[in-house]
Amino acid sequence: MTFCDENNIDLIKEELRYLELLAKQYPSICAASTEIINLQAILNLPKGTEHFISDIHGEYESFIHVLKNASGVTKRKINDVFGNSLREKEKESLATLVYYPEQKLELIKKDETNLKDWYKITLYRLIELCREVCSKYTRSKVRKSLPQDFAYIIEELLHEGNKKVNKLEYYNGIIETIIDIDRADEFITAISKVIQKLVVDRLHIVGDIYDRGPGADIIMDKLMKHHSLDIQWGNHDILWMGAAAGSKCCIANVLRISLRYANLATIEDGYGINLLPLATFAMNQYEKDDCKGFKPKTLDKLLTETDTILFSRMHKAISIIQFKLEGQLIKSHPEFLMDDRLLLDKIDIEKGTINLYGKNYKINDTNFPTVNWKDPYKLTKEEECLINKLTNSFVNSEKLERHIRFMYSKGSMYTVYNSNLLYHGCIPLNEDGSFKEVEIAHGKHKGKDLLDTLDRYAREAYFFKNDKKSKAYGMDILWYLWCGPDSPLFGKEKMTTFERYFIDDKSTHKEKKDSYYKYRDSEEICSYILKEFDLEPDSSHIINGHIPVKSKEGESPIKACGKLFVIDGGFCRAYQPQTGIAGYTLIYNSYGLLLTSHEPFESTQKAIKENKDILSSTIILEHVNSRKRVADTDIGNELKKQIKDLEMLLIAYRKGLIKEKK
Ligand SMILES: O=P(O)(O)OC[C@H]1O[C@](O)(COP(=O)(O)O)[C@@H](O)[C@@H]1O
Ligand SMILES: [Mn+2]
Q1: Residues with Cβ < 8 Å from 260, sequence gap 6 or more?
Q2: Are 279 and 351 members of one domain?
Q3: Ligand 1 within 6 A of 493 CB?
Q4: I need a labelling partner for 630 at 20 to 30 A (CA). Which of 307, 349, 406, 612 fits?
């Protein structure tokens, strides 16, 4: 005993009120000692595996697949257990069974001639694999993860090794019975799900769950069922948080992006938001306009001619509403320093030009039926009525509320976890690499303080329902976080949405990145950032998402000699031609850090039928020979504190300062 020296009675006396409370939970010397032994045992277990994923962008099928294969962890466990005793094909098939038990069973049952034999072999293999996966956890944690129906049987099988001769019959008996009473399918499914769950102890989502792809709502449903995760908000997530809070600028942007990718399923089917008012408005206002510049990006989706024209009109209608609303917001917040984004008033509609930074450019479309050029940011009555209706739908969507509340409860601007600093975009820096001061609500903030302050305002936007002024300010901050020049989630000087729709000259489309992106390859700057977040630079890392790594052009996801990793998942199919792969994910297990690159995911069906995985290669970033234990983690530090408290309680019992309650 160190800290709790028997003679350190004064300290114990000071803590007596707290220890009395603790005594309620551990009412005797025996109870307190048992807990100390339990906690000490946990400290010696290997550290749990962490899985980092980012920039999912609604691609639910590939995301769910990566969750299931845990970026290769499941395959590695299969290799550890079966090594050369199984053929590669058998290992692949076993892996697919673990990922998709119900669907794979269907296929196997169609082909297998001796099903009983197959069940028997497979059950043995799954139990072996499950035992390996569970070996990192306490029995109690494993027990809590078991499905009710099979909890007792799985526990028996896991802890009764089939090698002990006297237990062999008992063990075999259970397996035979499972098959004979026709419960093998259910058992295989149950144990596969236990393996899937326990293979990763903690999931980190480094932002951008929403937009572009077809099923962000499906991803959110999946995440809500996950046993242990944290989220670092991405600029697209914050946009949806703003929309759910009722920010009209955010709502217009969300709808514009959904229409740009012809992805209305999330809005309409996922969140039950009625788009009929927008469709009717667009058909009336843009009746004679084919809105060519607003044709949706459909990727492999097939759209009818009628839908294409309808979506294009809706897309243009909501874009114009967005530019007007954003103009109003920018004017009311001069401290956002976004006046250069006031563009409608720079249009000379007669000449068909726009004046940008002193230079005239031709605009490719001059049909603005709702713009009054004397007051271009004013909404027409119809536009106002429409955006009010849409806002009502967003704030009253029950499912959206559930998802966004979850985003708030699990999410934040950044996370520090086991010596890693996780954030989506950047920490704004000056040209010289120092932290950039940003003005928010009449105060200046930089570095960690900037992120903490923005985090607070982001919460006020949603939760300050009775303080309308603070809520409105918070909502404007959410929009600023989406596209403001010093937003840590956006990290670019401007979002050139208007230019990309209306000006063909591509030089105007450029979005200059924050100085951070120039410096993040520097060890010195990464250390400077880590220190700002109270981390020890030599043993810590920064984990970043947001900007896709262009592997095709030889860019590496490893920056600053391994101090910073960019894991933009590249799930976003629209961006895969540029990146060349489907991005990176990171694994942090008890031996170190591994970066996995992924191939584009074709389909769940193909993954099941052909046992196709999408892992292309794994780079070991750091490897230690002595495994990291729970004692070396954040949870370990918490447990050590609990042990110290319990040791004090023991002394208090023994000295009679607190009486045992028998
Ligand atoms: O290619 P799209 O979907 O039009 O989006 C382009 C816009 O998306 C952004 O890249 C932001 O989205 P990301 O956070 O996914 O990078 C903007 O900088 C850019 O203006
Ligand atoms: Mn992003």
Answers
A1: 294, 296, 297, 315
A2: yes
A3: no
A4: 406
Q: Is residue 613 part of a domain?
A: no
Radius of gyration, alpha carbons of the chain: 28
Q: Phi and psi (nearest 5°) for 618? A: -125, 130
Residue 365 sits in the same domain as residue 467: yes
| Residue of 236, 323, 341 best suited for mutating to test ligand 1, as the one with most atoms within 8 Å of CB | 236
Based on the fold, state whether residues 188 and 236 are members of the same structural domain. no
- On whether both 91 and 35 belong to a single domain, the answer is no
Cβ of 628 closer than 6 Å to ligand 1, yes or no, is no
**Is 627 a member of any domain?**
no
Q: Does 277 lie in the same domain as 185?
A: no
Q: pTM for this structure?
A: 0.94
Q: Looking at 502, 518, 537, which one is the last position of a domain?
A: 502
Nearest residue to 553 (alpha-carbon basis) of 579, 574, 573: 579
Shortest-distance Cα residue to atom 14 of ligand 1: 546
Instruction: Say if residue 36 is in the same domain as residue 123.
Output: no
Instruction: State residue 1's pLDDT score.
Output: 40
- Rounded to an integer, what distance in angstroms lies between the CA atom of residue 183 and that of residue 153? 12
pLDDT at 382: 97
CB 161 within 8 A of CB 96: no
- Dist. CA 528 → ligand 1 center (Å): 28
471 Cβ below 6 A of ligand 1: no
Q: Which of 415 and 662 is assigned the larger pLDDT?
A: 415
Could you tell me whether strands 584-589 and 592-598 are parallel, antiparallel, or unpaired per DSSP bridges? Answer: antiparallel
Q: How far is CA 660 from CA 5, 31, 643, 656, in A?
A: 20, 10, 18, 9
What is the spatial distance between Cα 335 and Cα 387, in angstroms, rounded to a whole number? 26
> Coil, strand, or helix at residue 629?
strand
- For the purposes of burial, counting CB atoms within 10 Å of the CB of 624, is it exposed (0-12), middle (13-18) or buried (19 or more)? exposed
pLDDT per position as a tens digit, 608-636 = 888 887 776 778 888 888 899 999 999 99
CB of 492 closer than 6 A to ligand 1?
Answer: yes
d(CA 403, CA 210): 11
Which residue from 481, 500, 512 has its CB within 8 A of the most atoms of ligand 1, so it is best to mutate? Answer: 500
pLDDT at 4: 52
CA distance 476 to 481: 9
User: How distant, in Å, are the alpha carbons of 215, 224, 228, 406, 470 from that of 409?
Assistant: 21, 11, 12, 5, 20
In this structure, the answer to whether residues 244 and 337 fall within a common structural domain is: yes
Q: Report, as an integer, the average pLDDT of 26-43.
A: 95
275: in domain: yes
230 and 371 inside one domain: yes
Q: Report the chain's terminal Cα–Cα distance, integer Å.
A: 25
Most confident of 108-122, 325-339, 567-581: 325-339
Evaluate whether residue 620 is within a structural domain.
Answer: no
Proportion of the chain above pLDDT 90, given as a percent: 80
The residue from 167, 198, 229 where one domain ends is 198
Lowest model confidence (mean pLDDT) among 71-80, 312-321, 444-453: 71-80
Count of the separate structural domains present in the chain: 3
